[in-house]
Amino acid sequence: MYTLTAIFGTPENKDEFIKHYNEVHTPLVKQMEGIRKIEVTWVEKMLTPLNGTLSDQPTLVCTMYFDSEEALNIAMKSTGGRAAARDLMSFAGPIVSMITGRMETAEL
């Protein structure tokens, strides 16, 4: 699996942010071609001190799953991917960081 993860900092108006994220942005993300799963973590508490990696507590972390890096690239260029990206920049551009990577699972 390959992931696209969005880390959202603190919005100016948290209630408006949550409403837009749930009612507008998430439905757009769900339209991305080839997306397999979305996991959203609403951050309640930081367990480590803020540092150079994170200068303020994130509001949420969203991880989106794709079959491969190629599938992610196709999704990003799809109509749904472009719509989600435009929307993301319109409501969260200054407070969002995005990362991609190959996911590994450790058996317990």
Task: Describe, in plain words, how this protein is organized in 3D.
The protein is α+β, with helices and mostly antiparallel strands. The chain has a single domain (2-47, 56-102), classed as Alpha-Beta Plaits (2-Layer Sandwich). 37% of the residues lie in helices and 25% in strands. It contains three helices and four strands; from the N terminus they run E-H-E-E-H-H-E. It has helices at residues 14-30, 69-77, 79-92, and strands at residues 2-8, 37-42, 60-66, 96-102. A four-stranded antiparallel sheet has the order 2-3-1-4. Helix 1 (14-30) packs antiparallel against helix 3. The chain is globular. The two termini are 19 Å apart. The model has no long low-confidence stretch (mean pLDDT 93).
Helix vs. strand class: alpha+beta
* Average pLDDT metric: 93
Order of helices and strands: EHEEHHE
- Dominant shape: globular
What can be said about the biggest beta sheet? 4 strands, antiparallel
Q: How many DSSP H or I helices?
A: 3
Strand order of the largest sheet: 2-3-1-4
Q: State the name of the first-level CATH class.
A: Alpha Beta
